[in-house]
Amino acid sequence: MRSVWVWILVVVALGLSACGDRVEVPPAHVGKILTKNGYKPETVPPSKFRLDMCFYYCDKLITLATADFGHREQFQLFMPKDQLNMSFDVRMTGAVNNEMIDNIFDRIPPTNNNISVNHIYGTYAQPVIRDVVRRVVAKYSINEIASSREALSQELFSEVKEALKGTPIVIKRLGLADVQFPKVITEAKERAAERRELIEQEKAQFEIQKIQMERDLEREKMNRAIAREKALGQKEVNDLLAKSVTDKYLAYRTLEVLEAMAESDNKVFVPVEALGTIGLQQAVFSNEVKHVAKKRQ
């Protein structure tokens, strides 16, 4: 009886050892089953399952990430047109080419049952990208790069995308970043910016002075207009007096002045001959001017 139980335990142990491992293909990954004769042809989508039973050689699940990845390439490039060195980064977003998955499994060895995207990128994409970027950027001067970074980024993206056709890596986005211009170029740009700032300040000051001068000019025009109106008014008064003050009117007014003097306590005796003098006539005329001016008011 005891031997029967021993055989049962042995059979159970062998059965348990023959069961395949529980494995998982995580999200944004694909997998393939690696057998002793190579990969099975079908690709396994994200899922959990158990491998086939085995005794001597057990199958393995090899996974590969298919999610988008970000990457940065750093450059120190000698610019032929400027004879200067310039540093910059190229940042990109890429992904595994789904059409090349079987090729990747066949050509890239796994590490810890996983094929690294970095390994794929370093093998197929990095040498191509660095070569294309150096070739394209070296065509331009530093000033051209500074003024046309967006256009240059678009050109780099197009050139790299074309160069990577038929490889396991697809580039979705790519552009220049963190451009470090040579110190001599940076200082020249700073001086140019300072000059532009001074010019803008001079223009602003000129506009202020222009407004002040225009205001002064308007004030002078107004003053001249006022003076002209005053002169015209005085001329009208003089013309009116010239027309209304005749010799007969002056003689009449002279008699009125004499009558007023006669009634005043402050009497002054004037010789009859002095009545026709210029002085008396001027006095009478001045009084008439005041009289006319008072009436106009």
TrEMBL record:
Membrane topology label: Single-pass membrane protein
Superkingdom as given in the UniProt entry: Bacteria
GO cellular component: membrane
Species of origin: Microbulbifer thermotolerans
Domain Band, first and last residues per copy: 75-207
Coiled-coil blocks: 185-230
InterPro entries: Band_7, Band_7/SPFH_dom_sf
Keywords of the record: Coiled coil
Protein name as catalogued: Band 7 protein
Localisation per UniProt entry: Membrane
